[in-house]
Amino acid sequence: PLLVGSVQLAPQAGPWSFGNNLAGVELHDVGLRGTASAAGGIRWGTTSITVLSIRNLMENISIFNFVATGAPGLRINYMVTGRFNRLYTYNNGDGVQIFGGTTMQFNHLLSRVNARYGMTINNTSSSVTDLTIDEQSVIESNQNEGLQVLTTNIANGQISVRNTRFENNCVAAGAYQMTVAPAAGAADTEVLVLDGVRFVTTNQTGDLSIDYVEKAKIAHTTFDSAGGKIPLKLASANARGVVIDTCRTVGGTIDPDGR
User: Fold this and answer.
1) In angstroms, rounded to a whole number, what is the distance separating the alpha carbons of residues 131 and 168?
2) Is 223 in contact with 246 (CB distance < 8 Å)?
C-alpha cells in the first residue's frame, strides 16, 4: 500500500489525484491549502467504473481554501470500500462531491463554510450503493444544502446518516438543510436512514425534504425548525414507505404531501 502522512502543504494549484485501480492507499495527518484558481483538493478514481479505488483510508485530513466555483475539497468519482475518519473540509467550493461507489463510511466528518454544499451525492455516472455518515459528524454553515442527494436515471442504494448535526446550512439558498430528490429521470434512492440526527435551523425554509425514496426510516431525530418553517417535507407521492419513530419537532409543521 501507499502511505502518506504528517504533511502540511503550501497552497496547491490542483488536486491530488488517485486512480488507475489503486488499492490499500492510506492518507493520514495531511493538510491541503488551496488557491483561488485550484480545481480541488483530493480526487479519487475516474469517471469510469472500470478504473476505481478499492479499500482506501483517509484519516485526520484537513482540506481548505479551494474556493474556485464548484471546486471540491474531496471528490470521489468511484470508490469501493473507502473509510474517511476525521475529515475536515472548510471554505471550499463544495466540501465533498461523490459521483459513484459502494461501502463508503464517513466518521467524524466536519464540513463547514463551503460556498455550495457540505456534501453532494450526484450519481451521474454510477450508483452510490452504500454510504454512511456517522459518529458525531457536523455539517454546518454551508451556502447550499448541508447534504444533497441527487439521482439521475440510476438508482442509489442505501444512504445512512447517523449521529450527525446539521446547523444553519442553506445560508444563501434559503431551502432545506438536507434534500433527497431526482435531478433527471425518475430513479429512486432505495433506502434512506436517519438515526440520531439533529437539525438546527434559523432562517432556512426547513430541515429535510425527501422525494423519490422507496423506503425511509427516520428515528431519534430532532428537528429544530422555528415556527413557520417545515421540519420534514415529503415532496411528492414518490416518497414512499416512510417510517417516523421517536422524533421531536421544536417548531414548525411536518408537510406530508408536498404542499
Assistant:
1) 23
2) no
Q: Are 134 and 107 in contact (CB under 8 A)?
A: yes
Please state, in angstroms and rounded to a whole number, the distance separating the CA atoms of residues 97 and 110: 14
pTM score, whole prediction: 0.91
What are the pLDDT digits (tens) for 53-102?
788 899 999 999 999 999 999 999 888 899 999 999 999 999 999 988 88
Residue pair 225/200 in contact (Cβ under 8 Å)? The answer is no
Q: pLDDT class for 252, splitting at 50, 70, 90?
A: low
Q: Which residue in 147, 145, 242 sits closest to 192, CA to CA?
A: 242
Count of CB atoms within 10 A of residue 10's CB?
7
